Amino acid sequence: MSFGSHEMIVRVAFRGAFDPDILHIWITDQADRIGVNGWSKEWQQLGFVEALFAGSASNVMEIIRIVSEGRQAQGIGDLSERPVSGDEPVWLGFHHLPPV
User: Fold this and answer.
1) Phi/psi of residue 22, each to 5°?
2) Under a CB-based contact definition with an 8 Å cutoff, are residues 53 and 9 in contact?
3) Number of domains within the chain
4) What tens digit of pLDDT does each residue of 50-84 get?
5) Residues 6+ apart with CB under 8 A from 61
6) In this structure, is residue 81 part of a structural domain?
7) Residue 24 included in any domain
C-alpha cells in the first residue's frame, strides 16, 4: 500500500440503528466516487462506526456533506466529526478495516 499527504483529514463517528456492513459499503462507495482516501471501521464494544476521510478540502467537505444528508436514510442517528491535525499518513484509496 502506498501513503499520501492530504490537504484535509477528518474523522467522523457514526452512531445509530444501522447495519455496520451496509454502512461500510455505502461509505466506501461514496468515498471512491468522490476520490477521498481513508478508512472505515466498526468499534463493536463502543457501538459506533468511525471513518477517516482524507484528500483535498473540497472533496473531504463533499463526503461530509453527503454522509450528513444521507444519514437518516442510512439509519445514522448521531454523526460527529473532528479534524485531524498533523501529518498522519493515510493509505491511498478507501479501506474497510476489521472491527475492533
Assistant:
1) -65, -40
2) yes
3) 1
4) 999 999 999 999 999 998 888 777 777 777 787 77
5) 8
6) yes
7) yes
**Residue-by-residue DSSP string for 12-70:** EEEEES--HHHHHHHHHHHHHHHT-EEEEEEETTTTEEEEEEEE-HHHHHHHHHHHHHH
Question: Between vectors from CA 38 to CA 33 and to CA 41, what angle results, nearest 5°?
Answer: 105
Sign of CA dihedral 52, 92, 37, 22: negative
Domain that holds residue 70: 3-85
For residues 17 and 74, what is the distance between their CA atoms, to the nearest angstrom? 9
Global pTM exceeds 0.90: no
User: H or E stretch including 87?
Assistant: none
- CA 4/CA 21 separation, integer angstroms: 26
